[in-house]
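Quick one:
INPUT:
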């Protein structure tokens, strides 16, 4: 069956930009539901299976410029390489038989397709490959079964948890999350009700005045974000979002505005910003607009001259945490770029030039050590973070007396704030 799946997906691979791989080894009884230890000795594979595995590994070698085969030593290295590339999301679909189902942990995996009669320990082990929580965006995994495993799943959960554990371990149905459901005697409103409440109490574009109203909006929109995150895992949700993309962006922009007002800073991860208000920044990042989308709008604007596209860009940028600090860059780029220049290369040249200009101004304004500052910034972008602890900032600062009159602490704080703003503006772009 693995061979059939592999051949079918390799045919689809060419048209769908998929990277597909497979791995299997000898199993004394392929119908067993309890997984034996993984076997790296392929001498016991029948000739047809070994030839097919060789063919699949050759495909893999061609894709990744590697040199693996079915011999014991190289097959183990193939296994390790596949494991790493799955974790790094270089492989879109991995087809396995009794491998990678016990002990393998890749938090980025989100879906397991099952075409095997699993039960008890084997079922729990297999399902557990995709239930690793990554962040507040990935709070569960998807299991798609091509066999009727409902009873086997209930039995396994009852055995390894308790008879009532099914309601905790498994998600509700799409209809429950969309329309609402009762849980332990408490009613949980569904997506449709929350959207209706949002539209009634906080119409798009209407001002939301007062701390309590703003807190209520944050709570309500946060609940919608959490539900939408779950519903997005269901195919049934497509076309049933109710809010238009534009309205959702407007609400999301307001949500970020209030968060920054309450917190007085930039968004981090999901966190308490008040005694009773939680901000779902990871879920905001999930739907943030990327630079490719902005470049597409830039091309469209210069091709048509349609001024409404500029407004679309502003709304898109305002609705995403990670792009807000880049607002000025994006708007300047769109205004000055040539029609033929709205490309990734032109954008990179533009960003690099603006970065050097801004850094030169920052160094001059704060009278920083130019050489040390440039080195510090380069290391920060290389490491993906700007370190404000330690002596790095002291090395770039101008001479200021540590003893009275110089106000060294305030000067250092001012430099750190400007450096952080500069880093945020160009992070992810350099």
């Amino acid at each position: 069956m693995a061979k059939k799946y592999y051949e079918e997906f390799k045919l689809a691979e060419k048209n769908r930009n998929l990277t597909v791989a497979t791995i299997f080894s000898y199993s004394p009884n392929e119908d067993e539901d309890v997984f034996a230890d993984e076997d790296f000795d392929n001498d016991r594979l029948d000739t047809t299976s070994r030839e097919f595995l060789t063919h699949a590994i050759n495909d893999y070698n061609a894709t990744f410029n590697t040199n693996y085969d079915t011999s014991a030593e190289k097959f183990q290295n193939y296994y390790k390489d596949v494991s790493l590339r799955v974790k790094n999301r270089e492989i879109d679909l991995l087809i396995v038989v009794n491998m990678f189902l016990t002990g393998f942990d890749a938090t980025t995996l989100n879906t397991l397709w099952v075409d095997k009669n699993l039960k008890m320990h084997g079922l729990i082990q297999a399902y557990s490959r995709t239930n690793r929580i990554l962040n507040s965006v990935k709070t569960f995994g998807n299991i798609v079964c091509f066999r009727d495993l409902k009873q086997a799943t209930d039995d396994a959960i009852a055995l390894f948890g308790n008879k009532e554990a099914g309601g905790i371990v498994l998600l509700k149905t799409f209809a429950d999350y969309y329309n609402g459901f009762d849980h332990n005697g408490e009613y949980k409103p569904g997506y449709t009700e929350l959207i209706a409440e949002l539209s009634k109490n906080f119409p798009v574009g209407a001002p939301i005045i007062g701390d309590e109203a703003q807190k209520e909006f944050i709570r309500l929109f946060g609940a919608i974000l959490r539900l939408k995150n779950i519903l997005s895992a269901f195919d049934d949700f497509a076309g049933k979002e109710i809010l238009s993309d534009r309205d959702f962006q407007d609400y999301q922009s307001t949500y970020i505005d209030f968060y920054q007002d309450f917190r007085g800073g930039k968004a981090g991860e999901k966190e308490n910003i008040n005694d009773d208000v939680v901000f779902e920044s990871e879920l905001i990042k999930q739907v943030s607009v990327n630079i490719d989308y902005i470049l597409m709008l830039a091309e469209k604007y210069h091709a048509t001259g349609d001024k409404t596209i500029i407004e679309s860009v502003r709304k898109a940028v305002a609705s995403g945490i990670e792009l807000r600090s880049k607002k000025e860059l994006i708007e300047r780029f769109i205004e000055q770029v040539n029609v033929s220049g709205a490309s990734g290369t032109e954008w990179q040249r533009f960003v690099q030039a603006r970065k050097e200009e801004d850094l030169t101004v920052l160094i001059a304004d704060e009278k920083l050590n130019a050489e040390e500052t440039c080195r510090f910034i380069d290391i920060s972008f290389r490491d993906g973070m700007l370190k404000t602890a330690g002596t790095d900032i002291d090395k770039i600062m101008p001479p200021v007396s540590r003893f009275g009159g110089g106000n060294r602490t305030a000067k250092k704080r001012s430099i750190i704030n400007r450096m952080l703003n500069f880093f945020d503006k160009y992070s992810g772009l350099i």
